[in-house]
What does this fold into?
Amino acid sequence: MFNEHAAGAIAVERSLHESFFADFGMSEEEVAATPMAPTNVAYTSYLLASVYDGSFPEALGAVLPCYWIYWEVGKALLRRGSPNPLYQRWIETYGGEEFAAVVRAVLALTDRLGTQLAPAEEARMHERFRTTSRYEWMFWEMGYRRERWPVGP
It folds into this structure.
């Protein structure tokens, strides 16, 4: 399931992001040369470490907010819409039924798995979920503030 989600996300998000870059007049070289912001480095590093070094429930707890929060934000914004076509494309991607079906599948897996966990494993899964949820907030805030590295080129 996650392999299918990853392949779908790569295809959908790559297309969406490439359309944004084109709208901003950015070349592939400019995009590739843009360093990731500090919060993005920390967040993606945390996700990779969680998946690599944690148990399956911990990995699931870590990636669940990536799905669920985008869906909740997408649904909320879909009700409001946007006059800006760029924003509307993002809203339709994450607020639409196709993405909702993916998120529902991950939530159903989480619910099934959750009933089988020992208390200590459940606590580790919850901690991964909380940390990633915080990183999601920080990710959005990073973009809003246009976060950059405070030192360096």
Remarks:
- Residues 36-145 form a domain with the Heme Oxygenase; Chain A fold (CATH 1.20.910.10).
